[in-house]
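Input record (Table S2, row 367):
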Amino acid sequence: MPITGLYGPDDFAGRPQGQTTSPRAAPPRQGTSLPMPSLEWTAEVERATAPLYARVKDVIPPIEWPLMAPTIHAVNELKAARGAVILAHNYQAPEIFHCVADIGGDSLQLAVEATKVKAGIIVQCGVHFMAETSKLLNPDKTVLIPDSRAGCSLAASITGADVRLLREKFPGVPVVAYVNTSAEVKAEVDICCTSSNAVQVVESLNAPTVIFLPDRYLATYVASKTNVKIIAWKGACEVHERFKGEELRAYREADPSVQIIAHPECPPDVLAEADFTGSTAHMINWVRERRPRRLVMITECSMADNVRAELPDVEMLRPCNLCPHMKRITLANILESLLTLGEEVTIDPALAERARRSVERMINLKN
Ligand code: SF4
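Output record (iron/sulfur cluster complex):
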């Protein structure tokens, strides 16, 4: 059914202005820096990184490898020396996702894996809310983000005060927050969800109506899959909302055999044209199982590279929408992060306690 209400900042006359929480990251600690290693392209670097290049040879030209391999080699050496683990989202560039990350995946996979990590230092290659989620689940570990300016248009669209205003307007209605929100927002809601489990989480509440925030398009998709009435927030992902249904029709007209798969953060006219809709993890599994000859992946552009590196027999047609926030994370600033132990993600402990409950409630849901 359609969503039953759509609210945003303009719908609340008394809304405090300009109070979206900015990411909190501490500067590097004094006395912890290590010297910059050599970043020369040597025979030893070439030999040590050859197995890594084999993973990405279909998406990174050989002429570019000598430029990035020395940094990849240095990151992997430092990671071992620091006892660190690198988590990377599916939208990270292939040289990060396939060559330095220990664990890759979507928000849910990273959140779950973060709880199993033994290392004392987590370097989060993703955007700030993901690093915050890792910190929530690992309060005693050092969580680093290579660039704390890596934000998200969804997380920036809503504040904790907005959630309180929604609760006043709809007393007793439970609130579900997509993980693409700040810790401040997670602290105000009943439970979190990802695009992998959003319908399951909404239905787990056994309520006739649920407030679902902040992505209006994911909310619309969830509403189409359940009988629960959905009240949504007017947030959107600046990457996925740029896709158009007519673009997809043009791909299909050019080659009627092409398969199209899309992320549920896309607008409804895009999803209507897709052969399959799912989270990044579900999309990857779909490609692994179906092995289509030609494929259009309607999501952030690096994911197509990461899948093609793994499955070179699948030809990707790529409408390339890059997330500028995800692309703030680079090999150079991952190296810097490991050298200086910056930027460390910090969350007020009392707020973290409340936010953690919403994330853990999601993780503990039975599948
Ligand atoms: S792709 Fe969209 S939802 Fe993901 S981090 Fe970028 S802006 Fe946020």
